[in-house]
Specification:
Elements (H helix, E strand, L loop, with lengths): L2 H37 L3 E4 L5 E4 L5 H31 L14 H31 L8 H6 L3 E2 L4 E2 L4
Antiparallel strand pairs: 1-2, 3-4
Helix pairs in contact: 1-2, 1-3, 2-3
Length: 165
């Protein structure tokens, strides 16, 4: 293999590592952000005697579950990846397992599939979160001249004119 081919291979391998790592990092951050946003809607509910329970609207049950599954898959991805690469290095005591990736294709494919799975669960969680938030938040259009002018719209005498600027 020539120097240019080796450089191209290393570059594409580095790019693969970079983008899969970033995809995993972003999925983790967005899942944690989703849980944090849902936490904003929590309430305290008095329990038996002196205990206090945390109440979260039932509409957020599925989104929270999906965010937690996504975060769980994040941990599983690293555990499985470590296990598969550990097996590869154990089977090749000379340390060539990393250089000969064709023999250890599962160590590459399985973590990538787990990245796609956690991204899928995270995306589904946001979809259901958006659906749930529509039931809780009331989007109110300005009904007075003062409200209308405050947001930069034009008052027509009876209502706000669209579009606002």
């Amino acid at each position: 293999m020539g120097k240019e081919e080796l450089m191209a291979k290393e570059t594409s391998e580095d790019e693969f590592k970079y983008y899969t790592q970033k995809a995993g990092d972003i999925a983790r951050q967005l899942s944690l952000a989703g849980v944090a946003i849902i936490w904003l809607f929590h309430t305290t509910v008095p329990g038996a005697s002196n205990e206090i329970n945390i109440g979260i609207p039932i509409q957020f049950r599925l989104p929270v579950l999906l965010f937690v599954v996504s975060l769980g898959l994040d941990a599983v991805q690293y555990l499985v990846g470590s296990f598969l690469w550990g097996l590869a290095f154990h089977d090749d005591p000379e340390g060539n397992a990393y250089q000969n990736k064709c023999k250890n294709i599962a160590a590459i494919i399985v973590p990538v599939l787990l990245i796609f799975a956690k991204l899928g669960f995270m995306a589904a969680a946001y979809w259901y979160f958006y659906d749930a938030i529509q039931e809780i938040i009331v989007w109110q259009f300005p009904s007075t001249e003062k409200e209308c002018l405050t947001i930069g719209c034009t008052w027509t005498g009876q209502s706000c004119a669209l579009p606002c600027q």
